[in-house]
Amino acid sequence: MRLFIAALIPDTVRDALHKAREQLQRAVPDRALRWVAPDNYHITLLFLGEQDEARLPVIVQAMEAARAGVPPFTVAVQGLGVFPNWNRPNVLWAGVSEGDQPLAQMATALERALLPAPSGKPFHPHITLARLKTPCRDADGLKKRLHDAVQRLMPADFGRYELRAISLMQSTLTPDGSVYTELHTVAL
Q1: Residue 141 DSSP class
Q2: In CATH, which superfamily holds the domain spanning 2-187?
Q3: Known catalytic residue: 126?
Q4: Catalytic residue of the set 124, 126, 147, 184
Q5: Whether 21 contacts 33, CB under 8 Å
Q6: Which of 18, 42, 147, 184 is catalytic?
Q7: pTM of the prediction?
């Protein structure tokens, strides 16, 4: 089973992100961008990859421990950017301007509990909107067009919501993209 732990987003935020995506697609109609399906928008707390089904109770236990002492909190989705940077964009994302601390706290606890060797990388909560195909050829100015389109949408406020749970998700790869299934929810 291909698994990850996520903070899901409500339809109001999903709709606002989708409207921004449509504007970006009109401004940058390029096949070098692979857009994430709006139904798949989420904030990943920890990607686990392939896991044996027998490990599910351990994962759920780690989720329950990670949310201990974390009451429901507000998440504000705002801003757009790319990873790793504008010189070499690989991922286009919407950011989190409020709620990043409790998200990072849970992500760190999950990583320590479930990964044999935690990455040590700083956690940057975000919602992936698109991936740029590698290698990103820039002969036609794709990076500049994308950067300009993003700047026109700024400050890009997509809404606020109260996060009340984290979810264990299964990702099934299909020829049409990933299909996500919620396997378990842990309330905050």
Answers
A1: -
A2: Cyclic phosphodiesterase (3.90.1140.10)
A3: yes
A4: 126
A5: no
A6: 42
A7: 0.93
